[in-house]
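Exercise: predict the fold of this chain.
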Amino acid sequence: MKKIYIVITCFAGLLWGCNDEFMERYPLDQISDENFWRTEQDLELYCNNFYPTYIKGFGSGWGTNSVAPYGYNEAIAYGDVITDNGAPQSYSKVTADQYNGHISGGSGSGGWSWSDMREFNYFLDNYQRGDIDPAVRNVYAGEILFFKAWDYFKKVKTFGDVPWLTHVVQTNSPELLAPRTPRAEVMDSVLHILDKAIGYLPEKGTEKPDRLNKDVALHLKSRICLYEGTYRKYHTELGLDETKFLEEAVDAAEKLMGGTYSLYSTGDAVNDYNDLFATYSYDGNPEAILWKEYSEDLTMGVAFSRYYAQNLRHRHGATRSLVDEYLCEDGLPIAVSPLFMGKDSIQREMMNRDPRLPQTVANFGTYNLQAGVQGANNAPKPNIPGLNGNKCPTGYRVAKWFLNDPADWDRVTNGMQAALVFRYAEVLLNYAEAKYELGQLDQAVLDETVNAIRERVDMPPLVMGNIPEDPIMDGNYATYCSYVPEPVLREIRRERRVELAFESFRWDDLMRWKAGRFLEIPVEGIKFVQEQFPTVVVDKDVFLSEDGYILPYYQTLPDGRKFDEEKQYLFPIPIEDLVLNQNLEQNPGWESN
């Protein structure tokens, strides 16, 4: 399924702005509340507004819009730069416990925006006014409910308790000065409207071109319910039971499994994983549940491939923390595998590893840019500090999403690399984790989920009762978390991190697992080998750990990143909104900021 060729016009603001009571007749060539809502086309055009807002892909145009309040570019590939998977040249204030956007931003900033919610509720208050077949109009109600559920999910992740709004709020509505609705009530309501959306939306293959279907909503449900279920389990301070949401996550995933979808594979374990993300189209790809297509001809493109491939935006690199988590080819962690060749150079540590590692992080000499192209000095070796040009601060240049096509780079804002938004591998990982958390995991579940994903890259299967030890990962949990997960859960989480790296999942995973302090693991890059970078000067251009690994924040963040567990699992409400509504209470830990 794809989402792109939709002409967007902001109808809602026009409708709200109409005050035509003095008129007895309404011009048919202009949009007004009185002559709208009459046809299916009216409903369809209204819904079109929300497709680019929620199905962002890589964004549009220059692709420079940022995600509030996190502060990274909205393209899917950039989300991990604020986590322990990635490191931008300029450190993230979010991960350094220096976020203060709620002080400088005005009302409705930092994710506390309710304009879309007003538009959703305006539709739901009015869409039944016209003489339209209920079966037809309910399809568009399903789209609006889908987007409303997604919007509320984002708000709950960000703020916890948020106001639940069922109808349009007027200037004299009591909801304007009401306190926040408890999280449990909000998420029950999210689940309710998402189920309604699933009921209203058409079956896959029967929807209009480029529109939502039932499977897309089921995918979102599996994601939302896994998040909420595990958040409740590990954030015991909430006192909320997780069972219902975990069961709903399982149910949604099961409805997508064993039928239409499968993992993309041509049998080429060395290239298939990377190829999945470097394409112009997902037509016919059995793993794609939702994707965004771009078109130069329609001037609906984005300057993603040009800038991502050349390490310009965010000038980021992968971290040693991520690289160390990839298994060796024998299915064993690097701490215990006889196949691990050590960390004396990136070339040695890449040997005998999970094939997804060299398809996610570029070894020297791989995924090169064409000579003469801006940014080409990031290959065959990464452009680490001390070299001219745009930097890869860790030396681990990201290869995932790398589309090696100068023709697309030359299109600039009309770039056409397709964005994979929802894919089947996530459904399998959601299912495996939810089944474990419910105490229902067995070998059959592992085989149809984790092991199916591993099979794509010829990695050994995970076997119940024979889970390998990993003193590094267990040690990190012991140091940075309040618990050490059972080995099989540790491996499910590893699989999720590896398979979904640089797809903007890691932050949410750390938050729901109550593992935010993983962000405090020292940010390290490649082992610096002087012979490979003869002009780079140690302690001037680059700074190294005792083991010789590049430390990108040695000067700018000498005390390392910090995560305050008393406050950072949620973001603050803008100060201005607290002033406007005295019944709102600030999230814990942010009161004095």
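Check your answer against the key: The two ends are 44 Å apart (CA to CA).
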